[in-house]
Amino acid sequence: MGDGHKEVLEELIDRSNQFLNRSLLLANQYLGVDYHAPAIFYNLKGKTAGLAYPLEWKIRINQSMLITHQIPFIEEVIPHELSHLFVYRYYSVKKRGVIKPHGKEWADFMQECFGLPPKVTHNFEIPLREVTLFVYKCACRTHYLSAIRHNKVLGFKSSYCCKYCTGKLNFLGRTEQVKK
């Protein structure tokens, strides 16, 4: 990540933390409690925008989606995940039972506390990432293996065969970069 990207990321993390603190204040006032700020980590990957861990009182945020979508992402994902934490802590004690992650309590909290629609999934475009594929060959064609599968071959934990000719796949000693 270049210096420009690093500065953008640092600014977005700062804005996320500020928004988290404002949302925390609203949530505490709404329920009449004084819960402390959760730990927040920007290390989530893949298609998930954010994850809440109520028992650990932490939130994980997808860094590449944060960089791509910025303020709209912060304004949707932070309250969504914070709602999970608050609803779990407050209602699981009060109701002495299991609270559904996107159940009535969560939906009501999203609408009444934050004024947001209780959307279960996000609509953000998922940024493509560059991955390295390892080039293998059998008798009939070329195959591309992920780094995980390639490392299993190198560690003698797996070998792979072609589903068409059933021939063993042999590494050609080269890789290709693709957007995925």
Automatic annotation (TrEMBL):
Record domain SprT-like: where: 18-172
InterPro entries, per database record: SprT-like_domain
Pfam families (UniProt xref): SprT-like
Descriptive protein name: SprT-like domain-containing protein
Species whose genome carries this gene: Thorsellia kenyensis
